[in-house]
Amino acid sequence: MRARLDHLVTSALQQGSAVPAFTCYDFTTALAVVAAAEESGRGVILLVAPKTAATPNGLRLIGALRGLADAAAVPVAVQLDHASDLQVMADAVAAGADSVLADGSSLPYEDNIALVQAARELLGPDVVLEAELGGLAGDEDRAFSADQAGVAVAGLTDSAQVEEFVSRTGAELLAVAVGNVHGKYKGEPQLRWDVLQDIAVRTHIPLVLHGASGIPAEELVKAASMNVGKVNFNTELRTGVLATLEEQLPAHRSDGENLQGLLGHWNQSAGSFATTTLATLTR
Ligand SMILES: [Zn+2]
User: Which domain holds residue 270?
Assistant: First the structure.
């Protein structure tokens, strides 16, 4: 069912839980994620990468995700992830996205604020806006293998800027950089709970943790107590699906080019990751 992303997250936080958000490059993954959410009786967020949304087929995928979300038995929101292009934002919303991460985190502070304000002006009050303060290292869509040493941590969110940033942007959610990275971690992830705590006391809007793949479950369960109500997953989901496909491909080729059977394994891999993650973040 349709749900405002901020309401979904706020009501989860009131129960001490966070809502997972999963990047969907395709419809098979989205079907698996929504089915897992329905089975667990929890809401979920479907993320669409900006590179996906920048293509005509990507906009059709958003339309399909919209239909899937609306027909689901649990609240499902569809968010355009990490967008800095206003045209892509407008197109994604017209196609069915109900939330946008207006990401100016790589820009100077004032330009970051101006981007979120421009997104609000363009998209209106009904589209839920997430903003991001502090630079996240890594590539959202491609993780680097261990021998490439993973990615280092970029700039942490400056907690002294949080209060003003939130009030001037009017964002409903704030993505923070507290030692989390996109892609694979270089060594053990070192989350700065002290910085997160400092941010959490300065704003009342829900916080968002990106790059949660690779952060151990025992760390993730602490997130909601620091007002982190949304946690984004991408790399681990892809890793699982790709490993499954690699393993299953030869048998399904020899089984009469059995694509349908292979897609069943894809669904199972994505679904079991979503189920585990939903359980981890739920109190
Ligand atoms: Zn991200």
Answer: 5-281
